[in-house]
Each structure stands twice: as structure tokens, then as C-alpha cells.
């Protein structure tokens, strides 16, 4: 099903609908997905900056960074296997058709900015896979 999900997200992006794999897996029915897309403000190409994988919890949040592809396919899969009382957020890469960053420093600054939207002060818990 993962390949079909990737194809669907790609087709939606080509049609101007910004959707991540994590969002697709979190909204598995057509009705749930339509509800998600109807709630979005702004243009359809507007990218999500932080993906909520698991909301709530009493411990510090965990921030998952995208893999080398920039895709966020592993966020919901890994998130459901992590036990603990902490929220989990995914930080996706830059979407297709958007201008890419040229240096690691720029990418790191972008990630820090997104993390601080959720948690203004550290220390921060990070996870990644590639």
C-alpha cells in the first residue's frame, strides 16, 4: 500500500493539492481526507510546516526529521511504535516544485524555526532515519 500512497500523493501534488504521506495515513478514508483539505487556509500549494503525528503528552515533544528524500512517509509508521507520554511532530522536507535550500546551514535554520513554532525553548528531542 505504500507505493500506492506515494503515487496518490504525487498525483495530488501535480494537481496543486499539497498533501503529505503522513496526512494520508492519518486520514485513511475519502471523507476524512476531504475534511482535512477543506479545513486548510490559504492556497492549495501552501506546504505544511509541522506535521502532528501524535498530539498531547506530559513529556517533551519528539521532533522527527525527514529522510534524505524529503518525504515524510516514515513519520506515522514509526510514531505508532514509539511508546511514551509525549507528542510527536514530523518536519517534512521542501515540497516538489518549491525552491530548495542550497546549504546544510540553511536547512538546519529552517528546521530550528519550525521546531520553535511548537517548542520555543530547548532542550529538544530529535529523531531521524535515512
TrEMBL record:
It holds the Pfam family PP-binding. Coiled coil: none annotated. InterPro entries: AB_hydrolase_fold (IPR029058), ACP-like_sf (IPR036736), PP-bd_ACP (IPR009081), Thioesterase (IPR001031). This is Amino acid adenylation. It comes from Pseudomonas syringae pv. pisi str. 1704B. SUPFAM superfamilies: ACP-like (SSF47336), alpha/beta-Hydrolases (SSF53474). Residues 1-41 form the Carrier domain. PROSITE patterns: CARRIER (PS50075). The lineage of its organism: Bacteria, Pseudomonadati, Pseudomonadota, Gammaproteobacteria, Pseudomonadales.
